Amino acid sequence: MNVSHYSTIAEVTAAVKARKVSPVELVDATLPRMEKLEPKLTAFAYPDEAVVGVQGYSDFAWAETVNLWVSLNRLLIHLLLRVPENKLDLPCRIGVAEPVPLARLMETYLEHCEDIVGQILSRL
User: Fold this and answer.
1) For residues 112 and 37, what is the distance between their CA atoms, to the nearest angstrom?
2) Of 6, 47, 79, 122, which is the most buried if we count CB atoms within 10 A?
3) Residue ranges of the chain with pLDDT lower than 50?
């Protein structure tokens, strides 16, 4: 199914709710567009304390936060396992840091996840 004709988040949401398009189809449709952005692939740093406070994360159920984190990381792992080997040297920048190869970014993220899992286990 061609999902490129959806131009707003509301249209995409309605299409998913009406089962006209699946979330997987949306991800698959987005990935080719991401390849066009490769030279400029940039992610943002964590929000500062003031932003976190305003958004009220501390009022959200801790167990739901953990479940969300686990689900998002399962999806990310699913996608990372499909990164072609010839893309692993692609330079990626997070915030204002110097670009690093995608493979190093992936390794660093996994190390970060191990730290987060340790923090989660310490709260159990």
Assistant:
1) 25
2) 6
3) 1, 34, 37-38
Instruction: Return the closest-CA partner of residue 114 out of 79, 83, 67, 73.
Output: 73
**41 and 82 share one domain:** yes
- Domain identity same for 27 and 56: no
| The total number of structural domains that make up the chain | 2
pTM above threshold 0.85:
no
pLDDT at 43: 52
SS3 101: strand
Instruction: Give the Cα separation of 117 and 23 in Å (integer).
Output: 27
Domain, as residue range, for 20: 1-36
Q: What is the pLDDT of residue 69?
A: 83
Do 57 and 93 belong to one domain? yes
pLDDT at 90: 92
Name the residue among 17, 117, 119 with its Cα closest to residue 73.
117
